[in-house]
Amino acid sequence: MNHAATAVDTQCINTLRTLAMDAVQKANSGHPGTPMGLAPVGYTLWSRFLRYHPEHPDWPNRDRFVLSVGHASMLLYSLLHLAGVVEIDAQGQRSGQPAISLDDIQQFRQMGSKTPGHPEYRMTTGVETTTGPLGQGCANSVGMAMAGRWLGERFNRDGQVLFDYNVYTLCGDGDMMEGISSEAASLAGHLRLDNLCWIYDNNTISIEGHTELAFSEDVIQRFQAYGWHTLHVTDANDLHALSTALQTFQRNTGAPTLIVVDSVIGYGSPHKHNTAAAHGEPLGEAEIRLTKAAYGWPEDASFLVPEEARTVLRDALHARAEPLYRQWQQTLASLDPQLADELQRMRAGNMPEQWQAELPSFDPDAKGVASRAAGGEVLNAFARQIPWLLGGSADLSPSTKTNLTFDGAGRFSADDYSGRNLHFGIREHAMGAIANGMALSYLRPYTSTFLVFSDYMKPPIRLAAIMELPVVFVFTHDSIGVGEDGPTHQPIEHLSQLRATPGLLTLRPGDANETLELWKVALAQTHRPSCMVLSRQPLPTLDRTQYAAASGAAKGAYVLAGAAHPEVILLATGSEVSLAVAAYEQLKGEGIAAQVVSMPSWELFEEQPTAYRDSVLPPAVTARVVVEQAGPLGWDRYVGQTGAKVVMNSFGASAPLAKLQEKFGYVGGGLPRYRPETSFTFETGDIVYMY
């Protein structure tokens, strides 16, 4: 194959460059430099190597193209336009419209356009994942590569191949500096994911200036230490060298590949390393004219796509992918019906018909069981019925109880990609983003760690919510119940942080049976992630013949116990529900009409009709108390200005749980007491609070 650039190649590359310049200039916002510098790389990959069918962009065995340098979004949009990619609508059908039209490019960064500032999954066909926060796309791509290997083990039978796709990721200096990329690369090397290729745009420019200000390591040696194959292309405009490197990746086995490509940001501009191009600003009309002249481009033309360039990329992709796509369809038609049904359900986001069969039940038990332990039992029951439910922890599965222990669950490793127990190592940030990548590849992943370490996972949790991915993030050790480990491990503000994230379900069950019901809720989601927040310490398993059925947890809050016309309502979540129940029993013995509301999920409760919400929290009953071993933020909306909050206003302490409960006012007379004649009174230490 002749890899040298032809006149048509050069014209297509310059089309990509000028579309980026013109779109950023019209929007008066964006990053033209990286798309200009990377245009030859994107064009070479798409025209000569990428297995991608423009008419079937949802083909499960397509190669994945991840733009981790999300600020270079105009490169991706221009590639999708020249490739003639067909739009997939919200119902999963081909609309017959282009994924990206020239008008869409002209509406770059405008309200309602399909060309937002950074690529957004679900908004634009052909965008494999939402990128922008640097390093996230890199870690997503590791998840996609892991999923590809797992899918191959599951569905490739008798010499017939349904899954053998590659994952290509464009990354930059910023990605290399972010810690998440190091975490993800380390794990990818350990797992020997030879279907993964990162292409590193080594342009040596960041927003503050030359990367030598803060970045001087030898990236190639670093990745060699991770166990990667490494290649170096010294000129991004050398299509022959780029093609040779990509061919080498495709031949490489036993390790992922890093291709370092030296480029000039804003290539072609008379002022190389142009300040605007480097810092994410429009080039300006005068600079654009000079740059186009340097390309031999009509200086006054805007958004020009020459006829000679319009179909080159589309035809190349189609010619390469069409026979492979037809063969894939034939292989799918011959697949075992049970496996074919699995794949159809996975693609649609549906569960097996019997996914709730053979679930455990939990008998009343005053001593009870930690919700992490109940959660592990429930998770295993679901995983037996859902073959594509898999996950693991950041080196904490013995504590989070998230190991899949049934026969055949196996361990995902470089020697066996069929396993369903994933070992992420102590890499919480990458773990969350890798799980997102797996969810983008039809799997139902879960992760686990301690709730206090959700701090390390906020970016991927947020992106899971933005992308509407049904990942389940399991967080255990959810309160001061961690005890002697002390304030560094006792989460306080973390529930507030999770609840503040739009599109995220935060689920904190009060006993084993609520844990079962809320796992059902989490796994039933198709378009939003969930956080399952579980205890380390045993929680009494409530007698549901005496108290309301745990199925009420699915509505976010329900009346667990109490009088039909209460004088006071006690609200609680998680491990504090049993404390509220104990207070209720005491108040009932004193002739005070009280009610207990278990409220495991604010989000689910807010989705209920007004009539239901008013039945749980009658507006006329203003005497309300919330009990939660976490920060107070947000509870005013439920207890009002006249209510009381028994919550945490410090970072806890290192001591046995019983001492902590007493110190912070959760036992030993610290719970609120309601007396109609005096209002609320409760004591913490020597301080008396009046409400």
Structure summarized in a few sentences:
This protein is an alpha/beta fold and 691 residues long.
Strand content: 15-25%
Multimer state = single chain
The total domain count is: 3
Q: Major sheet, described briefly?
A: 6 strands, parallel
CATH architectural grouping of the largest domain: 3-Layer(aba) Sandwich
Strand order of the largest sheet: 12-11-13-14-16-15
Helix proportion range: 25-40%
**Protein structure class:** alpha/beta
Radius of gyration: 28 Å
Task: Write the CATH fold name of the largest domain.
Answer: Rossmann fold
- Total number of helices: 25
Outline type: elongated
What is the mean predicted local confidence, pLDDT?
93
Protein architecture, described:
The protein folds into 3 domains: 7-326, Thiamin diphosphate (ThDP)-binding fold, Pyr/PP domains (Rossmann fold, 3-Layer(aba) Sandwich); 365-540, Rossmann fold (3-Layer(aba) Sandwich); 545-690, Rossmann fold, CATH 3.40.50.920. With 691 residues, it is α/β, with parallel strands linked by helices. Residues 669-691 have low confidence and may be disordered. It is built from 25 helices and 25 strands. α18 (458-467) links the parallel β13 and β14.
Provide the fold topology.
Layout: H1 7-27, H2 33-48, E1 64-67, H3 73-83, E2 86-88, E3 94-98, H4 102-106, H5 136-155, E4 167-172, H6 173-177, H7 179-191, E5 196-202, E6 205-206, E7 209-210, H8 219-226, E8 229-233, H9 239-251, E9 257-262, H10 275-279, H11 285-295, H12 307-310, H13 312-333, H14 337-348, E10 365-370, H15 371-385, E11 389-393, H16 397-400, E12 421-423, H17 428-439, E13 444-450, H18 458-467, E14 472-476, H19 494-499, E15 505-507, H20 512-524, E16 530-533, E17 538-541, E18 558-562, E19 568-572, H21 577-589, E20 594-598, H22 602-606, H23 610-616, E21 624-627, H24 636-639, E22 644-646, H25 657-663, E23 673-675, E24 679-684, E25 687-690
Parallel strand pairs: 1-4, 4-5, 5-9, 8-9, 11-12, 11-13, 13-14, 14-16, 15-16, 19-20, 19-21, 21-22
Antiparallel strand pairs: 2-3, 6-7, 10-17, 18-20, 23-24, 24-25
Helix pairs in contact: 1-2, 1-3, 1-11, 2-3, 2-9, 2-13, 5-7, 5-17, 7-17, 15-20, 17-18
